[in-house]
């Protein structure tokens, strides 16, 4: 999926998938007989098929929502934002800078790394892609273990940076939501202090305070960290 495709990644969808990797796989009691052959669940066809089913469902749900919204409040201008979590903090990022939401992959460190934000590289469909720490880029305190539901799975965001795609791991993805531009304009004018760098404003959404990230400033920081 590309940036033109809007993913609706929801916790409810994840619950519909049998996450055997968390029960009998590498993150469970390791009793799965397939582990002998595959070593890690991410190498197993069952794991890949589950990810595919999830992504297919997200796309179908988004199509359904698009059909339902035709003719409703056509004069309201909205902007699509991806909501995700790092540690205990929630963030929003414009989907125009998003290429894909992918399952978590192994990160391979690099010798003599020049940037503290550069975690290493990850294999994305056979291509090695630079992997960066948003915690470091945004100047956040080190993320410690945060209690969460067993079925909430960390993700990797593939972002279209100026020099090519980069990968950033996140602790949870809530989904992509269409936000009224009037709400965003109010958030940018509110003057409420954000905890992270490169933030346009603090957005109140479904009982959460989210740092609405300035994608241009963030992508510029990504480029600097790779040079």
From TrEMBL:
Q: What is its main location?
A: cytoplasm
Gene3D superfamilies, per this entry?
Answer: CheA-289, Domain 4, SH3 Domains
Keywords of the record: Cytoplasm
A Pfam family annotated for this UniProt entry: CheW
Q: Which residues form the CheW-like domain?
A: 78-224
**One GO cellular component from the entry?**
cytosol
- Keyword Cytoplasm tagged: yes
Q: What top-level branch of life does the organism fall under?
A: Bacteria
* Protein name (Swiss-Prot/TrEMBL): Chemotaxis protein CheW
- Gene Ontology biological process terms, A to Z: chemotaxis; signal transduction
* Source organism of the structure: Pseudomonas frederiksbergensis
Q: Where in the cell is it found?
A: Cytoplasm
InterPro entries linked to this entry: CheW (IPR039315), CheW-like_dom_sf (IPR036061), CheW-lke_dom (IPR002545)
Give the transmembrane region(s).
Answer: none
């Amino acid at each position: 999926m590309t940036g033109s495709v809007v993913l609706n990644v929801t916790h409810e969808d994840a619950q519909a998938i049998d996450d055997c990797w968390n029960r009998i796989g590498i993150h469970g009691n390791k009793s799965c007989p397939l582990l002998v052959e595959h070593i890690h669940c991410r190498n197993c066809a069952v794991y890949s098929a589950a990810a595919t089913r999830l992504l297919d469902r997200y796309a179908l749900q988004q199509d359904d929502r698009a059909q339902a919204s035709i003719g409703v409040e056509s004069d309201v201008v909205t902007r699509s934002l991806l909501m995700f979590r790092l540690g205990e903090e929630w963030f929003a990022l414009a989907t125009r800078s998003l290429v894909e939401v992918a399952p978590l992959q192994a990160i391979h460190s690099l010798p003599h790394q020049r940037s503290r934000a550069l975690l290493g590289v990850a294999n994305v469909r056979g291509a090695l892609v630079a992997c960066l720490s948003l915690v470091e880029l945004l100047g956040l305190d080190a993320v410690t273990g945060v209690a969460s539901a067993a079925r909430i799975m960390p993700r990797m965001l593939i972002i279209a940076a100026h020099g090519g795609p980069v990968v950033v791991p996140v602790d949870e993805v809530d989904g992509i939501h269409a936000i009224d531009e009037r709400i965003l304009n109010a958030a940018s004018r509110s003057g409420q202090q954000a905890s992270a760098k490169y933030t346009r404003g603090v957005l109140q959404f479904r009982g959460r305070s989210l740092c609405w990230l300035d994608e241009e400033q963030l992508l510029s920081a990504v480029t600097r960290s790779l040079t």
